[in-house]
Amino acid sequence: MSDEQHEAIERLERRVALLEAAVRRLILARAAPDPARSLPRPLPLEGPVAPPRPRLPLVDLPAATARSPDLEQWFGQRGLLIIGVLALLAAAAFFLKYAFDRGWVPPLVRSLLAVAAGIGVAVWGEDRIRHGLRRYGAAMIGAGGGLVYLGLWAAAGPYALVERRLGVLLLVASTIAVTLLALRHEIEGLAIWALAGAYLAPILLPPPVPNPDAFLGYLEVIGLGTGLLAYTMSWRRTFDLALFGYLILAGTGAAAALRSPLGCWLVAAGALLTLHVTRRRAWAEARVGILVTAWALLGASLRETRGSELRIWLALGAAAAIWGLLWWQQLARDPFGGATRGDPTTPAERFLFVANPVAFLTLTRATDPRLLEQAPGAVAALLGAVYLTAGWLRWAASPLMMGFALAALAMTLEWSAASVALGWTVLGVVALAADRWSGRPGGRAAAVGLAVLALLCVFSVAVWARESGAPVFTDAWAVALYAYVAAAALCARWWRVPPQPAAWEARGGEFCWALCGVAVFVGGSIQFGRSFGRLADLAGDLALSIWWLVAAGVLVLLGFRLDRKDVRSSGLAVAAGAGLKIVLYDLSALYALYRVASFFALALIALAVAYAYNRKAVSASRSNV
């Protein structure tokens, strides 16, 4: 099978796919019947029923085998064609340069000869396509367009026969002609060739005085216009080149024009077009790559945007438009929902779901309007409210969890460390309450995540920011600790196991009890060591050892009461740690009555635990008898 036949089959398959999509939309549109027009079903006729006709046997057709690549055919049909086109363009370029150096032919004649030769080659390529040589004819059209391009460039560039702006327009006209031929024959390679020429035109013929605004407008027309054509023709590579080329050239050649509200909105236009197109075409590289590029350009532009408050908000509105459209699209189709499993674009959609609010908040911080100086967490709180409302109304887990995460971030930007820990604790209780009494999905996962983060905050940033002279048991950190212990115990009591739980959901209540125990143990160690340490350093060390021993004893007794080996093992681990501290540290650091009290406490706890284990062994032996 030749390449032309293979391409013809691909075009037919693409058209059949478009027809199937159109028929599918019509079927879905008519799937819901109008109750006012629905007619009653006729009653079945009584009488003998005709026997069903025998079905014709189905014959499985052999699957089409993939063509094995033929190196000879490829090199003869494509490789030599590429070499020939490049050699033809190189010969024309060398001729123009050599003729210019020798002064053989006037510059006007040289340019006209190149243009005429290009038109002739393109016409001949058009004729080859009509005779069935699509690939060869397309290459000839591309070569002819290249010759015309070189002739016009020489006329407006080195020869200075026409003004540079007129030269750029002529180059664009030649690329438009090649693009129309590409659309006529449905050849993507010609469209890519023409697009490359359109992007190179202002670079090869720069104006005497740079005009970033005009250059940005030119790139906007070429990039978005070609992107729309590529969308209608389902040309993936052309769309990628059009949008990536537009954004990259805008960032490198028109950076000054981007530092304005209009420039930011022109960048956002490319991202919005990409979101619209990739919603209907599964082009993950364009959806992720172009959005990330647009966010990077907006970040660099918004940071340099200066002027009135209204001007800054107008520029920031471009980033808000991108966030809003992507949020709306993912609200209609949850990337973490069951309907997206197995979809190849799901990883990209999940990445964008997380990156979308983060990127918008980052761009907001880069702009830094005056409003955010007084309320730095206002935007995060607003986004959190939007996500929470959407997740609550649509019974969707991912928006609800994102809303809780953004609300926690808003607290971080606004409050002190102890207040943040307290706020995260309350937020976790609210999340679990939403799951228990309202049945909202995602509440349990959000509650567990917030509980872990609050625990880390209490015993890291919050305790480091605690003032040394603050009251031990009544300052803000102590209140946050008490609230966390109570909230963890409350969540453990409120935990609701679903009918078909995952592994972490089945043991969620135990995990909350474990968090409560960790908070009590570590918090008590800090509080008792701090309180008695103010009396004397040795008193603080002794209080810490005794607290560890008491905690170990309580855990062992609780493990016996609940018949939980893991709880008893935790108590033994704490007791071992306390024993090591007493032997390795207290023995050398403490003296007099402090040393006696430390070892006496160790003896009491060790004997009590041993007594409990011996009683268990005796009761077990009696029950066996």
Polypeptide structure, described:
The chain has 625 residues and is an all-alpha fold. The protein folds into 4 domains: 1-21 and 79-209, no CATH class; 212-337 and 345-367; 375-507, no CATH class; 535-614. Helices cover 78% and strands 0% of the residues.
Which features characterize this protein?
mainly alpha; 625 residues; 4 domains
Radius of gyration: 37 Å
Which of globular, elongated, flat, extended, rod-shaped describes the shape?
A: elongated
Low-pLDDT segments, ≥5 res: 32-50, 54-66
Distance between the termini: 86 Å
Give the total of domains: 4
Please estimate the helix content: over 70%
Find the structural class using helix and strand composition: mainly alpha
Number of helices: 24
* Number of strand segments: 0
Overall average pLDDT? 83
> What is the ordering of alpha helices and beta strands?
HHHHHHHHHHHHHHHHHHHHHHHH
Query: Which percent band covers the strand fraction?
Result: under 5%
Largest sheet: none
In terms of topology, how is this protein built?
Blueprint: H1 3-29, H2 71-102, H3 107-130, H4 134-156, H5 164-185, H6 188-204, H7 212-233, H8 236-253, H9 261-280, H10 284-304, H11 309-332, H12 346-367, H13 370-374, H14 378-394, H15 397-414, H16 417-438, H17 443-458, H18 461-464, H19 476-494, H20 503-506, H21 508-533, H22 537-562, H23 565-589, H24 593-624
Helix pairs in contact: 2-3, 2-4, 3-4, 4-5, 4-6, 5-6, 6-7, 6-8, 7-8, 7-9, 8-10, 9-10, 9-11, 10-12, 11-12, 14-15, 15-16, 15-17, 16-17, 16-19, 17-19, 17-21, 19-21, 21-22, 22-23, 22-24, 23-24
